[in-house]
């Protein structure tokens, strides 16, 4: 059972996939929230860049963007280190993966958040300011909790897409689940088995996150009762 | 930069001299996989909403598996995984099929796209109006006629906005073809990058081409939504008054 030796490698790969997805999620959520606020601010110097960001990113395939961002940053860094006479510096593939995925999915999250903001009743913010809450307080205590509820279906969708998109980072050289499976398959001549195993891990990840998201949804719904069909 | 365009514009658009490449290949992959997926999704969606529990469960398992695993993994399973099986290498037909990069890529793309399109169509079939179906049954329509003439026409129309998203996601997915050596836009960009080291220009150009294709898809779907979803547009107030027929004095109506 030579192939059993490769299971720790697969487990390590799976762990780095999960880590990558979670850190990229955090980055994408914050970037998305900022972009959504910029889009809704009504100030042209904020709206226009935010609009360009979301349109460009969502119109271009994530893999093409990933290669563009990854190689361009690397070349830029090389040029800077050459000018400053510093040694050669390689970007860590994990950092590159997080940055590119976070940057790309930030655009998708921005649209989700924008929709959720628009779904909140205008009267809520008006009532809050009538009670004398400051802008920040209104955002924190009134808008944000409702935002979570409205944005949750979109966030769940984007999260599932993001987990699957992490498979692409093996192309720019990060040793994630897919790369581990490829390596193990090559050295044991059992490519099919290891690839199926990798697929099964993604399947389980997705099924597990559906359960988790369902639990969060039922918690965040709180006072709201949906129509029974 | 201009030199680069002059030398490589042809391989970016349709041919690198020996074979099809670039935009032509990407569009071919996109069209075949969406049309193939669409054609297969109709019987599968009907099976999934049918009263047979077993059939529905099997189709659900297929769509769930293909929707929860990355397309890249599916492509690797089909392209490098299945070919390592001995019986495939020993059967002439299968051997020829799985050795061809285009066949493998298209098979993976069609299967993946079909899973998504099936679920979209299932959602929109389930949203069919109960009365419409009941009326169809009351008229004595057979289940085939009911599906073809009542349920599918309105379900497909309702699915149109979701299809436009799905086609754009498929366009994003076609970029994976280069991992199986299919010369699509991204493969051309990688090759040109390897020859010229003009990284930003080559990948930027590839991204721009993809962006233009996305805009083309969006425009096409806007047009078709205008045409097929005309009846769902919010009605304008003044339009109502003009459609009320005027009864002429002395007519018998």
Question: Can you give a write-up of this model?
Answer:
The complex is a heterodimer of chains A (229) and B (253). With 229 residues, chain A is an all-alpha fold. Chain A has one domain: MetI-like fold, CATH 1.10.3720.10. In chain A, 79% of the residues lie in helices and 0% in strands. In chain A, α4 packs across α6. The relative contact order of chain A is 0.15. Chain B is mostly helical and 253 residues long. Chain B has one domain (22-184, 206-243): MetI-like fold (Orthogonal Bundle), CATH 1.10.3720.10. Helix content of chain B is 77%, strand content 0%. The interface between A and B is large, with 36 and 38 residues.
List the SSEs and their pairings.
The complex is a heterodimer of chains A (229) and B (253).
Chain A: H1 7-40, H2 44-59, H3 62-83, H4 93-119, H5 122-130, H6 135-165, H7 177-188, H8 191-221
Helix pairs in contact in A: 1-2, 1-4, 1-7, 2-4, 3-4, 4-6, 5-6, 6-8, 7-8
Chain B: H1 2-13, H2 23-49, H3 53-68, H4 71-81, H5 86-90, H6 92-99, H7 101-126, H8 130-138, H9 143-174, H10 185-196, H11 199-228, H12 237-243
Helix pairs in contact in B: 1-10, 2-3, 2-7, 2-9, 3-7, 4-7, 7-9, 8-9, 9-11, 10-11
